[in-house]
Amino acid sequence: MTAPSRGLADVVAASTAISDIDGLAGRLSYRGYDIHDLGGQVSFEETVYLLQRGNLPTRSELDGLTEQLASARDLTPLVATFLPGIAGRAAPMEALRSLLSLVGHDDPDKDDNGAGANARKAVRLVGVMPTLISCYEAARTGRDVPAPDPQLGVAGNFLLQITGRTPAPEAVAAFDECLVLHADHTMNASTFAARVCAATLSDMHSAVVAAVATLKGPLHGGANEAVMRTLESIDGVDAVPGAVRDILGSGQKIMGFGHRVYRTEDPRATHLRRLSESMGRLAGDTRWYEMSVAMEQAVMAEKGLYPNVDFFAASVYRSLGIPTDLFTPVFAVSRMAGWTAHVMEQHADNRLIRPDSDYIGERDRRVVPIDQRG
Ligand SMILES: CC(C)(COP(=O)(O)OP(=O)(O)OC[C@H]1O[C@@H](n2cnc3c(N)ncnc32)[C@H](O)[C@@H]1OP(=O)(O)O)[C@@H](O)C(=O)NCCC(=O)NCCS
Fold first, then answer.
1. pLDDT in tens, 225-274
2. Nearest Cα to 140, choosing from 325, 303, 280, 356?
3. Cβ 309 vs Cβ 269: under 8 Å
4. Of 63, 218, 321, 356, which has the fewest beta carbons less than 10 angstroms from its beta carbon?
């Protein structure tokens, strides 16, 4: 038995036609399209279609998907019953994990893993995600959720419903680009969790609950919230280099930096840096962008590490008026597109995912009766 790769680094765990990363060149593509080509050119809805169905949609295909997403928006009966209680006591990612599980109970295709049922569930899951989060936010803050605006797509309506304000067109475009940039990323931890679950022939809702539970951790999706809290704890741009040295000196990691696969700039960070600046200007406060740039320089100087997707996303979301503890749920709204595509791909050509382990414990021990144990 060969020694395991710690954290399965460099292990190829699945074949996929959904997304691809070249970690040395800093390239990411969805279904063969470079993220630099997609970002700012296609909408989140087009990206959902691309990831779930394999091609960019025609105008009429996009219209069909937009309609299906809109009709999946409403809370299902069980979710509507339990959401207020959950919002009263659970943190956002805990709530999302529970609510998604409830969404599964009400789905008419819940026990069917066939291609048609999976395709329908995949769209419904993407459609309901923004509602789960905006209704959670409304319930915990005691306000009503604004009615969706038919002129706005997923990004615009989500911003409207989280913040309670009609978003500026530039904000909608920026947020839409954020959703595109986060939609899939090969065999990241949450996608892997979803595929492991799906490979037992469990259903799509169970698989995405596993994914949300995995995204929650601060080494994965939870990093974007941790980035904002780090920035907030620092007293202005000039204090950034000292704060970076202090964090590193105390043996902690700086959230939003480093990556298992990229050895150069994460291509998503390139776009998010630009959006951080433009959204800071739109909000009339570029402080978070300036501090982020100072932190990027300090971390590069001290550790030679590049920012990952979570780093500049934090200041973009802050400038868009999104509460910090909803940053990871926002990531989940986008990544639902990728998770569902991966579950469909797994079910379409399935084999149980069951790796081996390297036993390092004691061997050949003898059981001593309980009264004789010292
Ligand atoms: C993303 C991440 C989990 C990848 O982890 P990994 O591939 O297992 O890499 P490791 O944690 O083993 O890190 C390798 C080395 O770089 C250092 N390092 C990695 N990321 C670091 C960070 N953000 N801050 C400081 N040091 C870091 C580690 O301390 C380690 O140093 P050592 O070899 O001297 O012990 C890791 O970079 C990290 O924890 N980043 C912060 C959390 C984050 O932003 N997550 C979002 C990812 S998109």
1. 999 999 999 999 999 999 999 999 999 999 999 999 999 999 999 999 99
2. 325
3. yes
4. 356
* Cα dist from 94 to 27, 99, 187, 313, whole Å: 33, 9, 23, 21
The protein residue whose alpha carbon is closest to atom 44 in ligand 1 is 256
Task: For residue 338, give the amino acid letter.
Answer: G
Q: Which domains does the chain have, with CATH numbers?
A: 29-213+325-348 (1.10.580.10), 223-319 (1.10.230.10)
Helix, coil or strand: residue 58 = coil
Cite the beta strand spans of 169-280 per DSSP E: none
Nearest to 96 by CA among 332, 343, 327: 332
- Is 187 within 8 Å of 13 (Cβ atoms)? yes
Residue 345 in 3-state DSSP?
helix
Residue 93 alpha carbon to ligand 1 centre in Å: 23
DSSP code, position 106: T
CA atoms within 13 A on the CB side of 245: 5
Q: Give whole-number Cα distances, 103 to 3, 127, 135, 156, in Å.
A: 41, 12, 14, 23
The model's pTM is 0.96
For 27, the enclosing helix (H) or strand (E) is: strand 27-30
Q: Whose CA is nearest to atom 6 of ligand 1?
A: 260
Residue whose token pair is 């615009």:
156
* Cβ-count burial 225-235 (b if 16+ within 10 Å, e if not): bbbbebbeebe
Task: Report which ligand 1 atom has the smallest distance to the Cα of 256.
Answer: 44
- Chain segment 283-332, per-residue pLDDT in tens: 999 999 999 999 999 999 999 999 999 999 999 999 999 999 999 999 99
Ligand 1 atom closest to the CA of 309, numbered from 1: 48
Read off the tokens for 366: 């003898």
Tell me how far apart the alpha carbons of residues 160 and 141 are, in angstroms, rounded to a whole number: 15
Per annotation, catalytic residue among 107, 266, 310, 342: 310
Closest by CA position to 337, among listed 52, 18, 68: 52
